[in-house]
Amino acid sequence: MRYLLIIVSCLILTNTPVFAMEPQAGDIGNIKGSGVLERGRDVIEGATGVGVQAMDTAVTARGTMRIDFIDDTRVDITEHSRLVIDEFVYDPTSGKGSLSIKASLGGIRYASGQIAKNFRQNVKISTPSATIGVRGTDFVM
Question: Which residue, 22, 31, 109, 121, has most beta carbons within 10 Å?
Answer without folding.
Answer: 31
